[in-house]
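Hi again,

Forgot to attach this to my earlier email, sorry! This is the prediction with zinc ion bound. I've pasted everything inline since the attachment limit keeps bouncing my files.
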Amino acid sequence: MGADHLRCPGAPVIRLSLAAHDELRRHAEESWPRESCGVLLGRLAGEARTVAEALRCRNVDPAPERRYQLDPRELLAAVKRARRRGEEILGFYHSHPDGPARPSAADLFEAEWPGCAYLVTAVAGGRAGATRAFVLLCEGGAGKRFAEEPVEAAPDPTAPAQAGG
Ligand SMILES: [Zn+2]
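Structure tokens for the complex follow:
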């Protein structure tokens, strides 16, 4: 994981506003024992993907305890919201109730946005644990893979980060 040749060249760091960081973790806790999910909106800024907002979406998967599927209408609304604000969809988040903070095989299979960051938060007994980020890479012939990237949370995400996690 994280070898140089796997890194997205433009933006190796996922930088979250504290508000977005807290929001996606709160959502993970409130959704337990089901998976939460949502969209990350923000801008590419030099070395970082700078996430301004974590937008909650409904998990419409028929088995929400172990899978997630964003409500397609809410995803479309998020795309429009980003466009209106001059931002981009930088990634997605979801939670793993009583599971690890890394993508499952199904998560990789269903990931459809190359270059986007997929954040996974482990939730043990309703308490958010680690949040980790994985960028979806599509390599010709080799198929899709996730490369882990560091996550930083900062009061002002355009400034250097002050807290990890
Ligand atoms: Zn998952």
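Residues 4 and 33 are 36 Å apart (CA to CA). The helical segments are 18-31, 72-84, 105-110.

That should be everything now.

G.
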